[in-house]
Write a structure and sequence with these properties.
about 400 residues; alpha/beta; Nucleotidyltransferase, domain 5; globular; binds adenosine-5'-diphosphate
Length: about 400
């Protein structure tokens, strides 16, 4: 038996899950929040109960030390050597990393060289990795990349039709994100159907606060809706998804704002929040929409329309999907939104069964037996995917 730590480090937070492998059983999970701020918060689940304390955690190094000490204090581990490996979620692997890798010096140097591709996330990811490596120098640290699964996209899918020099010399291309989730779903679907991964063609709708659609052919990603950054694609909780890039210059003039400010609108004030003017949370919008709020309904409708545009296009691109899969917060739980998306896919012969669709957070077929494409809800589990890849590299 091995214990693997799955870590997701952000600029001021550090999420962790300790898993028992190969059983893939979660032993504990928790989060260190507000790192470097006045009052940091550490919370951990012990025997299913959440224990929270406020303390001072000036940097990621302190966060790692505290978290490991707490594991001992709560009798979850007896010593650090019980942790067989640490898997780190890393937002970007550039164009060189196409699978999970052991994070040696050379890999870290490569990642430091591409920080500009994802400055808000990759920097903090690296800080977290280095902090863990310092405290646990004798175990392998593995990087599991949000972009890796999409490295199988063909040139025609990842290249933007802009001057070729932007790609050749400045790495501008579609990378795609949520790869760990899309890979987990692909493997899980193959397992459920008793098929080999190479024999599945899917369209995966990962719809959470962040959202992306993935076209999987023969078990590999051949296209995805997020692009150079996670801003491209479908509208999300606060991100706009695709717009005409000319809007940026126009709104800069109209509002007398900088590029940075307009980009901030597109990343943080758009999507569900922007259209509804109410909330970025699907639960609020579904409730408001049911009580007659037009903009709340519109926010959901606009997203659903764009999602079905992608699904229809990807169904063509994969040569006919075996199934459409809904996953992540909204995909797993928003019954109304799934039904709405299904109703917009009737020309593909998709038919959602209302009774089957009346479910949350469970693995289930929700299409009718007449549906030309099967539709499933499959809960995602990025931590298990991270732990699996880490185990495989130990
Ligand atoms: P992320 O990981 O990208 O931050 P999640 O995958 O956790 O996001 O998804 C968050 C979204 O899931 C929110 O919009 C939330 O409202 C939605 N969600 C969670 N539970 C439900 C539910 N029961 N009904 C509708 N939406 C839900």
């Amino acid at each position: 038996m091995s214990k693997i730590m799955a870590v997701n480090a952000g600029s001021s937070s550090l999420k962790f899950q300790l898993l028992k492998m190969p059983e893939e059983k979660m032993i504990t999970s928790g989060i260190v929040e507000r790192i470097g701020m006045k009052k940091s918060v550490f919370s951990i689940k012990v025997n299913g109960e959440k224990i929270e304390e406020t303390t001072s955690i000036p940097n990621h190094g302190n966060a790692v030390n505290i978290l490991l000490q707490k594991l001992i204090e709560h009798n979850i581990i007896e010593g650090y050597d019980e942790i067989a490996g640490v898997g780190h979620r890393v937002v970007h692997g550039g164009d060189k990393i196409s699978e999970s890798v052991v994070l040696d010096e050379e890999k870290i140097e490569y990642l430091e060289g591409i920080i500009d591709l994802a400055p808000l996330h990759l920097g903090p990811n690296l800080t977290g990795i280095k902090a863990f490596q310092k405290v646990l120098p004798n175990v392998k640290h593995v990087g599991v990349f949000d972009t890796a699964f999409h490295q199988t996209m063909p040139e025609e899918a990842y290249l933007y039709a802009v001057p070729y020099d932007w790609f050749a010399n400045h790495k501008v291309r579609k990378y795609g994100f949520h790869g760990t989730s899309h890979k987990f779903i692909t493997q899980r679907y193959a397992e459920m159907m008793n098929k080999e991964v190479k024999d599945v063609n899917l369209i995966i709708a990962h719809i959470g606060n962040g959202a992306s659609i993935c076209a999987v052919k023969n078990g590999k990603s051949i296209d995805t809706s997020m692009g150079f950054t996670p801003l491209e694609g479908i509208p999300m909780g606060t991100r706009s998804g695709n717009i005409d890039p000319a809007v940026v210059e126009y709104m800069m003039k109209v509002k007398k704002k900088s590029v940075k400010e307009i980009m901030n609108y597109l990343n943080k004030q758009s999507g569900y929040l922007g259209v509804s003017g109410l909330s970025s949370d699907s639960r609020d919008l579904v409730a408001a929409s049911k009580s007659g709020n037009h903009q709340a309904k519109l926010a959901i409708d606009v997203q659903a329309k764009r999602i079905t545009d992608y699904i229809a296009a990807y169904n063509n691109y994969v040569g006919g999907a075996d199934a459409i899969i809904f996953t992540a917060g909204i995909g797993e739980n928003a019954i109304y939104t799934r039904a709405l998306i299904g109703s917009k896919l009737s020309s593909l012969g998709v038919e959602i069964d209302d009774e089957r669709n009346d479910c949350r957070g469970v693995e289930k077929k929700i299409s009718s037996d007449k549906s030309k494409i099967d539709v499933y809800v499959i809960p995602t589990n990025e931590e298990v995917m991270i732990a699996r890849d880490t185990m495989a590299l130990l």
